[in-house]
Design a protein that fits this description.
Layout (H helix, E strand, L loop, with lengths): L10 E5 L2 H14 L3 E6 L2 E6 L2 E7 L19 E4 L3 H13 L3 E8 L7 E6 L5 E6 L22
Parallel strand pairs: 1-4, 5-8
Antiparallel strand pairs: 2-3, 3-4, 6-7, 7-8
Amino acid sequence: MTIEINGIAHIILTVRDIPASRLLYDPLLEHLGLTRVADDEQFLYYVGGRTAVGLRPAAAQFTDEHFDQGRPGLHHVCFRARSRQDVDSVHELVAKLGAAVVHPPQEDAFVPGYYSLLFEDRDGIRLEVNHVPGRGVFEPGVERVDPTGFEPQ
């Protein structure tokens, strides 16, 4: 028996310093239409768009470490936008906030019309915002990209 999931309920990111991280995440998550529902020194939590994003502090022995997407675990988080203009608006915001932009909004060949922005938070956690028109890889006639040939950025 299989089930059909209804999206991702939440993503919890471990950061070195919640007060410092909130300088990016508060305006970013609010810009994405999420609402803050928990806020203290041990947990910051936003809900909206059929998902939630939380921040929790790293254990004391790890506060000097930087995120490495090449290690086992999370590679990056991607938020799906409803339009290319939404991707562009997030780019304007994160650039103004001083986030490290890995690449500005651009088209890629994953599927026709794939348009994305890739940036990092202060801990090096990679965040993407993309727009894929139509049904993406499920659009009739769309060739899927071979993920084994994908080069990590």
